[in-house]
Every structure is written in C-alpha cells, then in structure tokens.
Amino acid sequence: MARLTIALLWVLLVQGAGPTIQYVTLAQPKIEERLRAFEKKNGLREEKIRALFGEAGCPSERITEQPVKHAKAPNVMCSMARASERTIIVGAHFDFVDTGSGVIDNWSGAALLPSLFESLKTRPRRHSFLFVSFTDEEKGMVGSAFYAGHLDKEELKRISAMINIDSVGTGETKVEFTRGDKGLINHLITIAQYFKLPLGGVNVHAVGRSDSDSFQDRKVPAIAVHSLTEETFPILHTSKDQIGAIKMDDYYQTYRLMTVYLAYLDEVLDPDPPAVP
User: I need a surface site. Which of 6, 17, 47, 86 has the fewest CB within 10 A?
Assistant: First the structure.
C-alpha cells in the first residue's frame, strides 16, 4: 500500500497569494495496473469499475448504480460529498464496441476515475465530486444522456463543471476546443503550462460526439479530454484498439494533469462571496 502514494504536493500558483492545491500522486505502476485490468465484456467492465472504486477507497455506500433504460449495464458512480451543493462531475464511459479490446476507447478513461478519486480524497474539498462511468456511450451516449436528462433545473444549476475523459493514452493529452467551455479550457491551459505538462488542442467533434455533449446540450459547462490525432483516430473501433497502442508515459502524464486540474478547479470555481464588513 505504501507504494500507491509517492507525493503530497502543496502548490502556491501565485507567489504569496492564490489557491493552494493539495493532492496525492499515485505511482505510475498503479495507474498502469488499473489500465491493464480491462475486461472484454461490457458487463464485466461494469463490475470491474465498481471493484476499482472500492480498491481506491470509495466507501461502499458511496458506490452506486443508476439503472439506465434500454441498457443492460448501469451507470456506475462514486461520490465524494462535501457540505457544498456545488458539484464537479468527472465522467468516462466503460463500454466498447465488440472489436479489438477497447482499451483506448474507453477503458483508458474509465480506469482513471478510481485513481482520480484516490488522489483527491486526502483532504476536504470545497465541491462535491461525482465520478461517473457511463454505460452504452457507443450506442449513442445512452448512459450520459439518461443521467443528464433526468436532472431537474435545480440539479443542473448545482453542477459547476463536467470533465469528460475519452480515449487517452495514444499520445499527449488533447482537449476539444469547438464545444468546450472556454473558462474550463483556459483553466486547463493554465495548469498545463504551470506544471509543464503536455497539452494540445485537437477538435474531434466533427467526427463523433462524446458524453460531454449530453451535458453541454443541457447548458452545463463541460470539456472533453482525449489524445486523438489524424494518425491515431483510425485505431478506434478496430482490432488495433489494444493495450499495445497505449503510450504508457503519455497516459501517466494525462493522469497527472487531470489530478492537479481537478484540485485546481475545486479551488477556483464558485469563489466564496466576500465577507460583509
């Protein structure tokens, strides 16, 4: 267990002022281990995600399932609840098409959710976090559309951000610009530059929608993080989507970027109102 955490970082983004970020960094072998734990059937993947959330320390009462109409497997959720009603949702679908092993699309994203929870759970947060692994994205974003579609107006207002992770690890981290919330994108660029972590922009929205769209369609600020380029996009939905297509160092850098980004968002989104003199 001692090997799971290698650093506890406190970072002051502006010398003498600004938000302090605290998080735990997991060792690269643990991140790779969870990536290699993929199953080749969607029902087994749902069970594996639940098990990984438990391994990461998510209490059993906070691991829940949401049955989804017309889907065999449910959405799987781990919540990190705090006093604040404001919520940051981190999502990644676990299902894949029945070709290849679906490691890139999208076990690569789903396997990061338990590690991100584990990295952030070490201190009280300003926001509630909800980590959701969606079912049946490949059938038309069924799981995320069901989840977002059943939120009422008040629930929607309480969502500060939705961060979607889909098909990472084929190269350096990328972000979708065309539909992404500009404020969330700017925060991601800030963090990537400050920590000298790789980040590029590649728009894939023209060739496919992802679970972030289900939230953007309901006016929730959201972004989609991926790793795809013209060279790597053709791997998806083919026999080439295997563990060997993942560049492990790039995958680990994506995990690092997402960890500090989420910790940063927790500090800078929804600032507390100024004290009344």
Answer: 17
Which DSSP symbol is given to 113? H
Please indicate, yes or no, if residue 170 is contained in any of the structural domains.
yes
CA distance 231 to 161: 30
Domain count, the chain: 1
- Whether residue 277 is contained in a domain is answered as no
Residue 26 within any structural domain of the chain: yes
Token duo for residue 146: 């069901």
Pure H helices in the chain: 28-35, 42-55, 108-110, 112-120, 142-149, 153-157, 182-195, 211-216, 248-268
Domain contains 241? yes
- Given its phi and psi angles, is residue 105 left (phi above 0), alpha (psi -120 to 50 degrees) or beta? beta
Say if residues 137 and 95 touch (Cβ distance below 8 Å): yes
Calculate mean pLDDT across residues 235-253. Answer: 97
- All residues at 6 or more sequence positions from 65 whose CB lies less than 8 Å from its CB, including other chains: 50, 74, 75, 76, 77
Express each pLDDT in 227-243 by its tens digit: 999 999 999 999 999 99
Q: What is the CATH number of the domain that holds 238?
A: 3.40.630.10
Give the pairing of strands 200-201 and 174-175: parallel
- How many helices (DSSP H) and strands (DSSP E) are in the chain? 9, 10
Domain, as residue range, for 239: 2-267
Task: Enter the pTM of the model.
Answer: 0.92
